[in-house]
Design goal:
Layout: H1 20-23, E1 27-31, E2 35-42, E3 47-51, E4 57-70, E5 73-77, E6 82-85, E7 91-106
Antiparallel strand pairs: 1-2, 2-7, 3-7, 4-5, 4-6, 4-7
Length: about 110
């Protein structure tokens, strides 16, 4: 079954359900030709290995703590804090606590 993305003007819930962490439920919320929005769920101590994407990204921490390794340093994100990365920058993520973030990718 294809994932249904939100339509323009549609409410998008960002809070996670009680079983999201256990099932690593990251969800693509909306996607257009120019942008993708993802609710990223990272369980505690689970790493997202170093990778890169072509487009610029923002990562807004909603719950928990997320460490982003990029540009030769580690940045700790707490709820309400946001990180911006240029496209093509290698980065890895890990969660110090069960975490939820809003990831925006500008598609090239």
């Amino acid at each position: 079954m294809a994932l249904q993305h939100a339509a323009s003007g549609e409410l998008i819930p960002l809070k996670r359900g009680d079983d999201d962490i256990a099932h690593f439920t990251s969800v693509a919320l909306a996607k257009t030709a120019h942008m993708e929005l993802i609710r990223l769920v990272l369980p505690k101590d689970r790493d997202m290995p170093v990778h890169k994407v072509d487009g610029e990204i923002t990562l807004l921490c909603l719950q928990g703590e997320i460490v982003c390794d990029a540009h030769g340093k580690s940045v700790l994100l707490r709820p309400g804090e946001m990180l911006y990365l240029l496209g093509g920058v290698p980065h890895g993520l890990r969660a110090n606590d069960d975490a939820v973030a809003l990831l925006t990718i500008l598609l090239t």
